[in-house]
Amino acid sequence: MSKTGYHSTIQPNPPIAAMPSTHSSEPSEKNDGVAAVDRALHIATALANASTALTLTELSHVTKMYKSTLLRLLSSLERAGLVTHRTDKRYTLGPLAFVFGRSFEQAHGLQGAIQPILQWLVDQGTESPSFHVRHDQDRRLCLMRIDSNHSTLDRVRPGDLLPLHRGAAGKVITTLGSNLTPHPLTAADLAFTSFGERDPLCGAIAAPVFGPSASLLGAISVSGPLERFSELAVERMKALVLTAAQKATQSLGGQWPLA
Question: To 10 degrees, the CA torsion angle through 227, 229, 233, 237?
Fold first, then answer.
């Protein structure tokens, strides 16, 4: 066979220099996929936090995304059932959000364990009790709340996103968010207070609720107008909140760290 013929048989093979281009595109594709998931979750969170259904323009304003990007992602979310496009052209969460919420409740059993304990606190005459969990790196989510019997209240509602680094419940989550420290804990290590941090006119007292393997599930807190947080009231409510947190921990299969 001639040299010319030999070379013509291998000519169709891809040049070696071209091979890396296939691999170099993979990180970009992965990054694009992660970014799309982040944006989709940002949209779902915006709808969850909205008090009413949102128009495309309103959603664009809240998420800071272009309408073209929103339409593409909303279409995918609608197909999955996480978003509903109503006949009035507004967007809201779809039925999949309810499925997620029901699954979360069934997995953790939080409502059945925590709600009666919050009511017990109200019956003891405390300020308004609530239960908070970490939402992200900067915010906590109020999952449950019962108003106290007092005539004046602070303004916290289930579903509210509050600063993680301000307030008694936030201190619980940031301080005890990992496994418990090895040294023995005291009541002083588990009762957290805040006076005028998140709201200059409000005070709060909080304690942790643990699950199996000493994992922090969230924080029970009582909060109300700062004027009612006298030294005597604070000491009384601290003891009640710690008792409530212990009851909740034991009800949810956790071990209270105090003997």
Answer: 140
Q: Are residues 173 and 63 in the same domain?
A: no
| CA atoms of 196 and 129, how far apart (whole Å) | 17
Three-state SS for 78? helix
10 Å CB burial of residue 95 (0-12, 13-18, 19+) is exposed
Q: Look at residue 5 and tell me if it is in a domain.
A: no
| Residue 13 within any structural domain of the chain | no
| Long-range pairs of 133-142 with CB within 8 A, sequence gap ≥ 24 | 133/173, 133/217, 133/218, 133/219, 134/164, 134/173, 134/177, 134/218, 135/161, 135/164, 136/164, 137/164, 138/163, 138/164, 138/165, 139/163, 139/164, 140/164, 140/167, 140/169, 140/170, 140/173, 140/219
Structure-block tokens of residue 49: 């936090």
Q: How do residues 56-87 score in pLDDT, each as one tens digit?
A: 999 999 999 999 999 999 999 999 999 999 99
For residues 210 and 100, membership in a common domain is answered with no
Amino acid at 165: H
The residue segments making up the domain with residue 103 are: 25-107
* C-alpha 209: how far from chain center: 16
Q: Answer yes or no: is 20 within a domain.
A: no
Between CA 50 and CA 54 the distance in angstroms is 8
- Pick the last residue of a domain from 39, 72, 107: 107
Do 159 and 221 have their domain in common? yes
Question: Phi/psi at 65 (nearest 5 deg)?
Answer: -110, 150
Whole-angstrom distance, CA of residue 171 vs CA of residue 153:
22
pTM over 0.90: no
Model pLDDT for residues 162-198, shown as the tens digit of each residue: 999 999 999 999 998 865 454 567 888 899 999 999 9
Nearest to 116 by CA among 247, 258, 254, 255: 247
